[in-house]
Design goal:
single chain, Alpha-Beta Plaits, Chitinase A, domain 3, five-stranded antiparallel beta sheet, disordered C terminus
């Protein structure tokens, strides 16, 4: 194999590689002979098939496999021999080859930059902390009781009020024709819940038990069913019962409905939930501080190929969010959005490279327990399909890398935080839980996906 460097410009590298005909022919014949031990050809015993017969029948397919493997092996050797760390998969192109002759190909790639680790002991961060008071717990338990209120039938003739629940039948029509999915029997609807399209629930306030109401509404232009979007509709509604919501009494019996021994155990669970939420919010804000400092204090070139991949990923999500009607993206031209999200892509790539380098240089590893836990967390997002998720990762180990990235990020952050100087500052829970304009993670400021209807 002959290798000649053709490009060395910043992070860009290029090589011209020549594989001699003898090597390719030897590999081809070896592959054919190995095949001859297994295949069956009429008139010949396995292992006794002449090479020229094998060439005639299988030569072209074997040649393709041999060339692909030879080029892959040569590419790997060039990377190893030149101590190169590719940022993305090298681009390989065969430039010259005729059967029986030498093979020439070129490979172009970008390498990862050399990075000098910062002095973590000089990093100072502020950790926001907040106490959990009894009032917060009282309010949370009260909200739980409100959400789990019991509905009791109002006296006959009583008018439905906002917050009441109706037991009703309804049939929806567009241009006098009933449409699919627009009817139901003995349906429970809480007025004011926003469960139905705008205007529907308001027109049922004042309805009585046994009454019939014609509700007239217009489906939103962004409605998920295109055949109904923007159209006027009428619903024939029959009210069977009007039910009044009564907030549940917060007692030991109430707590037992949720699997707790008593009210004290329920309150402790609520307190623990607050504690976890506050710790997560505090860490998120501290991570953002850390990433801002790392981005500011480290300087290195970013491989354009990595930036292109990251930007294209963001851009695809952004265009999908626009299509779904995300109001946060309205009023901006494509040029403005490209400029804004190019900076975001640069930040994500820069921090991703830096954290990966920190993990590698400090021998930060992911163990099997951590990976299994990540798979379990993933499975919990799909109730009833946990086994399918586990089997997916067993059969597709390449997708485990998607789980490794976030784990490695968190472990690299933990490594830095253990060495940095951290000052605590007490704040209100409102300040602690306030949303940042940007997320802390390296996947900073992904395009949002608001539900339009």
């Amino acid at each position: 194999m002959q290798v000649k460097e053709t490009t060395k410009d910043g992070l860009k590298r290029g090589y011209a590689v020549k594989l001699d005909a003898k090597t390719i022919n030897e590999k081809t014949e070896s592959q054919l002979k190995s095949m001859g031990e297994k295949v069956k050809i009429p008139g010949f015993r396995p292992g006794k098939i002449p090479l020229n017969v094998l060439k005639q029948r299988y030569g072209k397919s074997v040649m393709g496999e041999v060339i692909e493997r030879a080029v892959n092996d040569a590419t790997h050797n060039v990377l190893h021999d030149n101590n190169l760390r590719p940022a993305t998969t090298p681009k390989v192109e065969i430039t010259s080859y005729e059967e029986g002759g030498d093979l020439d190909f070129k490979m172009d790639l970008e390498v990862l930059p050399e990075i000098i680790e910062p002095d973590y002991s000089k990093i100072t961060l502020e950790k926001l902390v907040s106490d959990i008071d009894e009032k917060e717990v009282d309010e949370a338990v009260s909200r739980l009781a409100e959400r789990n209120k019991a509905f009791v039938r109002r006296e006959k003739g009583a008018k439905a009020q906002k917050g009441d629940q109706l037991l009703m039948d309804f049939t929806g029509k567009v241009d006098g024709v009933a449409f699919e999915g627009g009817a139901a029997k003995k349906f429970h609807l809480e007025l004011g819940s926003g469960s139905f399209i705008p205007g529907f629930e308001d027109q049922l306030i004042g309805a009585k038990e046994g009454s019939d109401v014609v509700v007239k509404v217009t489906f939103p232009a962004s409605y998920h069913k295109e055949d109904l979007a923007g159209k006027d509709a009428e619903f024939d509604v029959h009210v069977h019962e009007v039910l009044k919501g009564e907030k549940a009494e917060v007692t030991d019996e109430f707590a037992q409905k949720f699997g707790f021994n008593d009210l004290a155990a329920l309150r402790k669970a609520v307190t623990d939930q607050f504690t976890g939420d506050y710790e997560a919010a505090s860490r998120s804000k501290m991570k953002k501080q850390l990433f801002d400092k790392l981005e500011k204090d480290t300087s290195f070139a970013i491989p354009q190929s990595m930036l292109d991949v990251e930007f294209n990923s963001i851009w695809d999500k952004l265009k999908q969010a626009q299509k779904e009607g995300d109001e946060a993206l309205s009023g901006k031209s494509d040029d403005e959005l490209r400029k804004e999200y190019t900076k975001i892509a640069e930040r994500r790539v820069r921090l991703g490279i830096l954290l990966s380098e920190i993990a590698q240089k400090n021998k930060i590893q992911i163990n099997q327990d951590e990976l299994s836990k990540a798979i379990m967390q993933q499975a919990k997002q799909f109730p009833g399909q946990e086994r399918v998720i586990f089997e997916f990762y067993q059969k597709n180990p390449q997708h485990l890398q998607e789980l490794r990235g976030p784990i490695m990020e968190e472990k690299s952050v933990d490594f830095i935080l253990a060495k940095a100087k951290i000052n605590e500052r007490k704040v209100s829970h409102e300040e602690l839980m306030s949303e940042e304009s940007e997320e802390a993670e390296t996947s900073t400021k992904k395009p949002s996906k608001k539900k339009t209807a």
